Amino acid sequence: MFIDRVSISIKAGNGGNGCISFFRAKYITSGGPDGGDGGRGGDVVLVADEGINNLIDFRYHRKFKAEPGADGSKRNCSGKSGEDLIVKVPVGTVVREETSGKVMADFTRPGETKILARGGKGGRGNQHFATSTRQAPRYAEPGKPTREYNVTLELKLIADAGLIGFPNAGKSSLLSMATNANPKIANYHFTTLSPNLGVVRNRRGADFVIADIPGLIEGASQGAGLGYEFLRHIERTRALVHVVDASGLEGEDPVEAIRKVNDELRQYNPGLMAKPMVIAANKMDLPDAQENIGRIRQAYEPEGYTVFPVSAATGEGIEALLEGVAVILADCPPVVTFDEDFDEFAEMPDDKDAPISVFVNGDGDFCVEGPGIERMLGYTSIDTEKGFAFFQRYLRERGIIAELEALGIQEGDMVKLYNLTFEYLK
């Protein structure tokens, strides 16, 4: 089974929490803080592996989560960092963030790696919060959490030239004659259910890879037939070989067949029509082919297409076709790549830059929300006098008290900070 598009979820490991600890030893009654830092969470790393040719391994394994960092411990011991999660994908895979559709990574070379999601930073232990006036801090920093992302993996085969055309045009037969590939060949529509690749050994230049793209039909760009499922593979090819049944025995006029397939390419992605294209008029050994080859040339050579009469059954004209494709490839740009335009996944915003919302809810209570507030509540011991004083100072330095006063807060009004509720006192 050939799978070339799947959706998965990825999540890097959360950072470990910092430790709250104080040094204790015989004859030492007032040891200083010695809480260690939390370990860093593991990354989710994708690697392009040339030994994989489709995405079938992801059909039943959809969730990928890296190991979180371990919590810090006493004696200034830092927690162990989480192990990175290595995920292997085929060469040619494009990774998109599912919600926005933006490209997170594009793998075009074997061994290429990309950190798709970075692990969270470990929290600092209480040893870092000791000052000359605060020698016994009873709070530590929690580890930085990470977000879970839903991403789409799309495999776009990397081939130098792609064979396109209606079903039964003879693409698979042509591939088998031109390369060492052994695709399934039969006299019925949609014999080819997945793309096939073959290498052309070019005696007059560099070898090149050619792909047999499963047959398109009219309406493929709107999802009809099998063509839509594999149109994405044409995007990677540097040149196109339009294979048409020149005999017309399948009931489709070859001139119209070429036009219909080109229309489908144009509707799916107008950029596909900018690729260099030659026309392989196949089945020249059959009746009516000689008459139709003239019509094909008359219709498409004025548009700049070169027409090669070939017969996959007898091998006639195949060498000339391959030489023509090789000449075109020599002047073609490299394999199409997709620019990465999604980078928000790498790091969560720092708390100092994260916005804080101050508002009045429907019950008339004053509410304060934001990542910085949530984080501060996570590592401040507000049940102690020093911890509460530290938290009050944070609210004042961030301008939260000023915003509450601007909203008209009065002494005795209630203030809600997530699960914490307290009475406002001047």
Question: What brief labels describe this structure?
Answer:
20% helix, six-stranded mixed sheet, five-stranded mixed sheet, Spo0b-associated Gtp-binding Protein, Chain: A, GMP Synthetase, Chain A, domain 3, 3 domains
Sum this structure up briefly.
The chain is an alpha/beta fold. 20% of the residues lie in helices and 21% in strands. The protein has a six-stranded mixed beta sheet, with helices on both faces.
* Order of neighbouring strands in the sheet with most strands: 10-11-9-12-13-14
CATH superfamily assignment of the largest domain? P-loop containing nucleotide triphosphate hydrolases
**SSE string, helices as H and strands as E:** EEEEEEEEEHEEHEHEHEHEEHHHEE
SS field, number of helical segments:
8
User: What structural class do the secondary elements suggest?
Assistant: alpha/beta
CATH architecture of the largest domain: 3-Layer(aba) Sandwich
What is the distance, rounded to the nearest whole angstrom, between the alpha carbons of the first and last residues?
A: 70 Å
Q: What is the averaged pLDDT score?
A: 80
Determine and state the CATH class of the largest domain.
Answer: Alpha Beta
